[in-house]
Design goal:
Two copies of one chain form a homodimer. By secondary structure, chain A is of the alpha/beta class. In chain A, 40% of the residues lie in helices and 19% in strands. In chain A, the strands form four sheets. In chain A, strands 13-12-1-5-3-17-18 form a seven-stranded antiparallel β-sheet. In chain A, strands 7-6-11-10-9-8 form a six-stranded parallel β-sheet. Chain A has a four-stranded mixed β-sheet with strand order 16-14-15-19. The two termini of chain A are 47 Å apart.
Amino acid sequence: MIAGESLLLTDLYQLNMMQAYYDHGMTEPAVFELFVRKLPARRGFLMAAGLEQVVDFLEGLRFADDEIAFLDRSGRFTREFLNNLAGFRFTGNVDAVPEGTIVFPNEPLLRVTAPLPQAQFVETRLINFVHFETIVASKAARMVLAAPGKRLIDFGLRRAHGAEAGLLAARASYLAGFAGTATVLAERRFGVPIFGTMAHSFVQAHDDETLAFEHFAHARPDGLVLLIDTYDTEKAAAKVVALAPRLARDGIRIRGVRLDSGDLGEHARQVRRILDEGGLPEVSILASGGLDEDQLADLTRQAAPIDAYGIGTSLVTSSDVPALDCAYKLQEYAGLPRRKRSEGKATWPGRKQVWRRTDSQGRIVGDTLTIEGDRQDGDPLLRPIMRDGRRLPDLPMLDAVRAHAASQLLRLPDALRALQPMTVPVAIAPALYALAADCDARQAAMPG
Amino acid sequence: MIAGESLLLTDLYQLNMMQAYYDHGMTEPAVFELFVRKLPARRGFLMAAGLEQVVDFLEGLRFADDEIAFLDRSGRFTREFLNNLAGFRFTGNVDAVPEGTIVFPNEPLLRVTAPLPQAQFVETRLINFVHFETIVASKAARMVLAAPGKRLIDFGLRRAHGAEAGLLAARASYLAGFAGTATVLAERRFGVPIFGTMAHSFVQAHDDETLAFEHFAHARPDGLVLLIDTYDTEKAAAKVVALAPRLARDGIRIRGVRLDSGDLGEHARQVRRILDEGGLPEVSILASGGLDEDQLADLTRQAAPIDAYGIGTSLVTSSDVPALDCAYKLQEYAGLPRRKRSEGKATWPGRKQVWRRTDSQGRIVGDTLTIEGDRQDGDPLLRPIMRDGRRLPDLPMLDAVRAHAASQLLRLPDALRALQPMTVPVAIAPALYALAADCDARQAAMPG
């Protein structure tokens, strides 16, 4: 299954519209912005992510010969158009909010300025990247806030929606503060630290649980974590205590045990006691099994003696909110601001900037959305990312993005740190109201 | 972004366990089964999907030299193990429920019988494929049932979780009865019919809505569908009526209009009246915009004059149920049945078969889950799919799978067709209870 690198991974209407734009010479500069219309339930903020994949995609944008041949065989497109596709590249500009930044509704995460066919064509994949990574980074940030001081590890690949979702969820959650992932490819591709324990099947395949632990310990002596809930968690913890001195004679140290079922807080207390009384106070406890941020918050309140959490499904599918109401909309074409006015989906026109005000401790006070060039109090969030189709040299590496995200979470006011948050108002500047009114007046005067 | 074809797209623990299995010579035949533990809220059935991707994956299973070199550099594995990986292939058997079949909790969708390291290693990607396609096919089937006689089209790529999710959602929804997708690559890869209209940006980029329609019509004269909600839906419908005779003189026929916002039922009635009174009764109405099966059912009850629906986010993310509680568990190793007994996650041991009883109209009456070879009333659901690592010749093509799925939906009893369904009980045969008791007794007698 190779899907992500084909430019045919797009909506047919993008190609249809491109054909029409070329036919009618509509290749003037267009400005599109990508934004979220409103926050979903229980989300007080979003954490922007996916920009690096967007830049890679735009820099590598080209149709392969076999893809053009496929479009030709379909009979849908003119020869002239297909010739245009052969040389089709992204030559435009991108401005964006840096990855790891806290963002709110109506704030552009990304602005593309390019000849109309280019800026139009990239819509589908740009949303696909930014939507998914933003939703996972935002979910991960909630988990990081719910379990202060704990190591969180992404275990979600198997229940992620396909290959790319699994890989990008590892990146997006690491960016937001996770310690790492179980997904091996994420280390190779993004340098995300990887962690692995053992499965129940390993224990089941042995006739004896202690023998299973011993076999695994000798094969995997470094960073050894034993899974102890296959049959009876507390009995298995006692087996770990009994086994530890034998392993120690072979120079093998047990680093942790993993719980994966039942009442995790209660089992952790029992197991902690068994390990401590058995002379293993340094053996850590990793818990997993259907966890989400609410359960993490509950275990934090209980002060459960759990050192690390493996989190899968709820993270990689953002299970309570698997999609955002986001859009990529034309804001300007051929020098004129544009605005969609569909019911419930009207947009603010023009090129926009977001200004963020913070208090003396650096905490977010509020944002102002306005047109580009209309200076407001605070700091602007959108920055130049690509010019003339090439990335600017200062795009940060993933670890720098992760540090930025951590500092952003520190800047969240308490009302937004809660799992049931209040929302921060984004103020609309007078200049933007005025531009929208101009747009509407112009549209009302149209002959059509 | 290429993710899906690398064998490093797996959990680290799979490689860790393989190293341990090789170290200890544990390469006897193992039997794993993939099943869903319980139905999520509001689901009365699931539709099995993803098997073709599993077979492709297993047939193509091999580590690339650069992947082995990466694992070598990590320092985690022995030279002997890495040499084993170079020749690692899938040589086992697969039995499975055919794609498009209705299935219930605890019923194996898939059984893998292979040397333990092979059967273990494939876990992550097998779940990743079957879980996602099954969840989308099941969601799509609900939509098909909610909108009888309507054409449903997948518009979800942009909000799918990454590239592969978008592509496989097009396949899974077509399999379940959708008419097609907007995703171009799905036609090339799977032969799924593709459909495309136009975006609001196309209208906005023109100074005049009628001119936008005219430009699009001349560039895209075949299967022409005009988007009419950018500014005012009914006014735009009147513009379509005025434009139609001019286009007809150029031999261009308008096939449809698309609504994408507001009260779709109410707009459809207004637009239908405008089109009919304007002499365009043959122009169809396509509606889209945040639709799910409940809204489809509501529009069906209203008898809204809508001919086709474009459905995105709720389909491709299965938004109310973005994940299933599914598992791939060891059922037998070295000839002995195995059983996990973790709290709330105990499994039925052994190789299993599902027998389905139907009434005289072919409607599902009930299923019996039992051990392989224990013949029950009805028809067995699991069939041989791969032997010795190769697919059997009669794996159906996608259109045959789609026909099978359609006949399965006809066989649903009324109680399961409802959006708020009753669940069908799956009976457990006495032979399976007996085997589970044997397993527990053996485990209780273990020395560990």
